[in-house]
Design brief:
alpha/beta; three-stranded antiparallel beta sheet; 15 helices; 14% strand; PyrdxlP-dep_Trfase_major; aminotransferase; transferase; succinyldiaminopimelate transaminase activity
Length: 408
């Protein structure tokens, strides 16, 4: 067996299953899960129609590069969304969802033969970054997020000795779980570091189309173009249809950026057997070509966040994120419990599932930046999310000592 497999940590949802083992669920409340970031709005019917119409495409092997109309759809969307012009033949590549691509990319670019290679990622983070680094033979380094700056990553906390060994940097904007969006100055800093130390940047942007303000989140390629880096050197962005179009089961996305990195990634994927099904390609072309369903989806998220956030803010520290569909809430100190205890007790009393924040982070620099926080995925319909929020409010109020008791 590959000995590096033993370095992998249990996935957060396996830890959650173990945490909830033995909990007697209250029969008075139907279960509501805010634990998993799985979109649950209905998938647009026209995407399924495109899938059904393409069944005849099963009679041939698909190319790893994808069909020309698919790559053209990627480039057209990048033009529409970011005012960027990328060559569909050399600067975009289909992937079977951003998750598998984020993992595979580390296997492409990390050179384990070099002295103690490092992969830098945010903390808290999407655990695929860590697993990809470990299985590529690198050491993860966790850059902390700063609550005082709306959970922006503190890249200055990464010492030069780490940057010198860094081969790959994962960024996530909008961030999972915090929802923070990287501004242009932050990108400028990372590009300067990449130039100085020669590492590659993988920008995870799968939440880019769910946002709450008038200005959409800045993308990595967009930032590069604005800063005069139109060749996108040492930069790839990763995106998918899962959140944007509510089709996580389609497993469809694409990567875009540096043509040299695309060429190397294509070579890896050709051997890895990662070609996208012709049916999925047809459905993807339809999805990337339509913005109306994306606008409607965004409006639904805006409504539920506008209703749920004030309810929870009355009893715990939580605020509207920059983007994404998560609330990153602090467990009230008055409850006298940690984030895992909070999640278990909430389930036992009110049948609502949330994910402990410490499961999404690692102990680093003397602490776990996810400790005492919980991630709530507002992916269900609005009424269900509001009901969950109401139960959480009741739970906190029922467990909070009265002023008289506190003074005594």
């Amino acid at each position: 067996m590959n000995p590096l497999l033993s370095h992998l940590h249990p996935y957060p949802f396996e830890r959650l299953r173990q945490l909830f083992s033995g909990v007697d669920l209250p029969t008075a409340y139907r279960p509501i899960s805010l634990g998993m970031g799985e979109p649950r709005h209905p998938a647009p019917p026209f995407i399924a129609d495109a899938l059904n119409r393409s069944v005849g495409g099963l009679a041939q092997y698909p190319a790893t590069t994808g069909a020309p109309p698919l790559r053209a759809a990627f480039s057209a969307w990048l033009k529409l969304r970011y005012a960027l012009t990328l060559d569909p033949a050399t600067q975009v590549l289909p992937v079977n969802g951003s998750r598998e691509a984020l993992f595979a990319f580390a296997q492409t670019v990390v050179d384990a033969s070099r002295d103690r290679p490092v992969v830098v990622c945010p903390n808290p983070f999407y655990q695929i970054y860590e697993g990809a680094a470990l299985l590529a033979g690198a050491t993860p380094h966790y850059a902390p997020c700063d609550p005082a700056r709306n959970f922006a990553v503190d890249w200055d906390a990464v010492p030069d000795s780490v940057w010198q060994r860094t081969q790959l940097l994962y960024v996530c904007s909008p961030g999972n779980p915090t929802g923070a969006v990287m501004p242009l100055d932050e990108w400028r800093k990372l590009f300067a570091l990449s130039e100085r130390y020669g590492f590659v940047i993988a920008s995870d942007e799968c939440y880019s189309e769910i946002y709450f303000r008038d200005t959409p989140p800045l993308g990595g390629l967009q930032a590069a173009a604005q800063l005069g880096r139109g060749d996108f050197r040492n930069l790839l962005t990763f995106t998918s249809l899962s959140k944007r179009s509510n089709v996580p089961g389609l497993r469809s996305g694409f990567v875009a950026g540096d043509a040299a990195l695309i060429r190397a990634f294509l070579l890896y994927r050709t051997y890895h057997g990662s070609a996208m099904s012709p049916l999925v390609q047809a459905a993807s072309i339809a999805a990337w070509g339509d913005e109306q369903h994306v606008q409607e989806n965004r409006a639904r998220y805006r409504e539920k966040f506008s209703r749920v956030t004030p309810m929870l803010a009355a009893v715990m520290q939580v605020a509207l994120p920059d983007a994404g569909f998560y609330l990153w809430a602090k467990v009230p100190d008055a409850l006298g419990m940690d984030d895992a205890e909070f999640a278990r007790a909430l389930l036992a009393q009110y049948n609502v599932t949330v994910l402990p924040g410490s499961y999404l982070a690692r102990e680093a620099e003397g602490g776990n930046p996810g400790a005492q926080r919980v991630r709530m995925a507002l992916v269900a319909e609005t009424d269900e999310c509001v009901e969950a929020a109401s139960r959480i409010v009741q739970f906190i109020e029922s467990r909070t000592p009265s002023p008289t008791a506190r003074s005594a």
